[in-house]
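In response to a reviewer's request, we include the raw inputs and outputs for one of the modeled complexes. The two entities were modeled together in a single run.
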Amino acid sequence: MVTAPHARKPGAAMSRSFGYLSVLLALGVAGCVGGFLGDDDSPTDPPPGSGTPSGTQGGTTGVPGSPVMPGPGGLIDGTPTSMPGTTPTNMPAACTPGPLSPVPRIVRLTRIQYENSVRDLTGLDVRPAKDLPPDTTLLGFSRNLSLEVGDLVGRVFNEQAASVARQVASAPANIAKVVSCDPKTGDACATTFIADFGKRVFRRPLTDAEKMRYLALFKQGNTVVETGDAFTKGVQVTLEAMLQSPHFLYRFEGSTQKDGAHVVLGSYDIASRLSYMLTNSTPDVMLLAAAEKDELRDVNNVVTQARRLLETPAGKAMIRDFFGQWMQADDWANHADKNAMRYPAWKPTLLPTLLEELQSFAEHTVFTQKKGLATLMTSTSGFVNKATAPIYGVMGTFGDAVTRVDLNPAQRAGILTQLGFLASHASSLTSSPIHRGVFVQRSLLCTTIPPPGEQVPPLPPTSAGKTTREVVSEHTDAAGCRACHHGLINPVGFGLENYDAIGAWRTMENGKPIDPTGSLVGTSKALAFSNPIDMAKAIVDSPESRLCFAKQWLRYSYGREETPGDTCALETLAQAIGNDSYTPVELVLDMVRSRAFMFRSAEGL
Amino acid sequence: MTRRFANNRRKFLRGVGGLAIGLPFLETFASRKAWAAPPKRFAVYFQCNGVNKDRWWPTTPYGALTASSLMGTAMEPLKDHAAKLLIPRPLNGFPKGYGQDGVPVDDHNLGMAAKLTCAPPHTEADNARGPSIDLVVANSINPGGKGPLLLHVGETRGGRLGAAFYTNSGQPAAREGNPWNAFKSWVGAGAPPASMPAVDYAAMRRKSVLDVVKEDMKALQGSPLLGAADKQKLEMHTTAIRALELNATPGGGSAGGMPITSCTLGDARNKEIEAGGGDFVKNSAMMMDIAAIAMACDYNRVVGIQLSVGSGGPMYNWLPDGLNKAHRHHPLSHGATSDAVFMPTLPDAEWKLALFNVDTWHMKTLNTLITRLASYSEPGGSVLDNSLVLYMNELSAGLAHSHEDLPVLIAGSAGGVLKQGQYVNLTRLVDPNAYGKPCTPPFFITLANALGYRDASGAPMTKFGAPTARGRVPQAGEHVEIKV
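The model returned the following structure tokens for the whole complex.
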């Protein structure tokens, strides 16, 4: 059984400081930051047993002797005694799962989860999140277990609850979307509405105390709402409270059922976890029904539901959302100003098209082609419209919507060569090899880059007639910069020098030829490449990129940083990712099939 | 409560109708029932990237400040208030940056996450490790412990690079970026409705609804399973619900109650704000007005205004300088044309002039807030006299990502506690953990106590901030040299 090179021993691999030091040592860049390391700058050999995984050279061949994906029925990283009929079929032999780390009992919905939930619950085309500030991101992702409700967020929730409730009450057709009984039956229907709709909002049945509290409020509606019949007024005021109740705004996991080192979650807890992870919205009717029958403590039933949800538009939207966040699309607008003389084809208004390109490409690759990381990183499929086709040099007639085309295989390979990423990692005039290099290291290889070093004396302005590569090489050659820039950042950034500030292909700059050659530093193999196409292949072939892809999905899915308790799961996922037919859909299903998803830590109980 | 709200709100909305529009607003205060002792207020003006240090500080030596000390510097727009300014120097950020504290986080991130918190992140996944000074002060000096009013101008980002203000758990604090939203909800302006209902249904409904929400909250808070972080989240949320109730009444919670008919910017300005700002210049001006009125009328005693984000823009293309028309603030602060190049590629004289013009523009903007606060008279002088307005930014020298010798400026004396009209040489406090120069934690402690900060036991502040990853802890004590 092959072990991913990052996993020296369970636990240690996940330690940030350990990872950081190991990168520096492996690169021989000790002294990158003054005082951090000793004078020993000899490169460290890879630890025993961490050799190159066999059969992964092509990046699309899979790992001989091991299944494409963890076998059905088991958890990918361990089996508790109470889980009948489950066998950990794919856990790397050397890996002993560490204890799960505690996570909060209370987790606030993200901005998009809040909006989707309100829309799904009311069936109204509303945008209640429009005044919410952006979510605090964690390692680049908006699903963050630490999200809070301060004064401003609380006020928006308060105002929006009132506004949405008023809209529901404004038309009988809207009332019918939330009330399933006959309003003429009065109190009986009020009781039914509170129990049925309340269960959808709170994602669990209401307690008796809650039912009484909301019924009392329903009745107060007649005095505190100005217009409408008594029933409509009651619905309005009830909705206004439910849509800002902490039971709606937070997922609360109240299970205390211990099983060894774990807490087993209840079916309703699992339903909420699953629904928000896979669809960014509240559980649908089928999922709630499964929870009511208490079917979701069995991982097989959960996976069945998960597979169904991932095929819904909301499931596909989640996959698209991941790629947008991974590629930092929220930040693109901050880099959208380009020099109009130099780049007449560019307009900041292209950004929505560029995001659509990225996400259509991801959806096509994952759901139509049913492919994984290798195709995402090397495919020549493009999605262009009439404004972006000329930048790609694609001939033909195009409209406003993006259309799938085949891009020039000598110039384009997957997401790293798309305009959105390239243009947002560039200045208004030219490419930014540093930003591109930092992105590849941090986001594709999960390298920890230490902070910039001590202040260095400014260099004189450079003369004209140099390439960006030459300028950047010189500017980062000072003693305090060289180790990290030359050792980690620049080489991979230079690999993308064939793309200018808007992502268009170029072979010359300032009258000199572009030099896109280098090697994939920061990885155990450090493969040499001669152009960006080669570099993309080298990235896919590196075990670091596979482990990193798993980590990024874990961070996005679970809303937290990886911990030692995730090591075995990550190793298993990283190994599976080496097979190109292992799609992000399968990856997400495997994350559902893990201890971290099905259980909580028992710490504190 | 309900009736009072309805009455006040109606009176407020009709407000200016009965008075001459444009009547200088606090002139009326002296003749009305006012506070025996007006409350102290605190405003933080925070902008991003570094400054041109060559032309930031007064041109005269430490000592008395006059208008002429500021001529030719970025602070020239504040010259009329020279007698109300306090400029302490040198002051270092905590931590110092350059990776000297073992934080694997770059200095732009530190400049945002640690500047007002003195609680630096330890890892890439961290934000700050504690609250910013505005929140700590607000929780103490605002009635009901209400949080500060936080406003934002310009681009936004989700992570710590996007925020200078932090919550008690060190999460970036949300800021309101839409002037109209800030104004209508917190300050409560707007055109009066055609006819006011006899019964204020909105207020009654809000009360019924919030009563139920509070019961739900109580039930959740009663769970024995919650950890410390969970409890903190719900406590914060509870405070937010209380703020909704308090803010139902303009001036709600204030000691004496301000004469609310005066608390308006005037119909014309109201209409402009309602129409929405849009660009950076307009929004900045509106946020200054909103901050001023929120402080003067005791809607909130603490206001934070953040302009743009760390390592960010905008392109100051309205300034009379060629480079500002071509490059965003961040690369210019590095003397470069690209975000990626950290060395000057532009002639020194040119990029430093561009940066100086940006610095001057910020002082002009800050001046509108200070001038407005100074125009409101109340017992003890003006609202400015009873306040502290603090200017800070992300970095000192942008080129070097420096956190040392920060550009810092204070207007107002917190009711005569801090010195005025002085350029003060700060001295190092005696502390085994002190850096070579004075640093921010004791400075903030001095400001907080000047504002009347008291902890739950009634004691003044003795500690602020949280240790770095290397365990270095901020020093304690106060800078007596800036006190009267």
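As requested, we also summarize the result in words. Residues 441 and 464 of chain B are 6 Å apart (CA to CA). Chain B touches chain A through 93 residues (CB under 8 Å).
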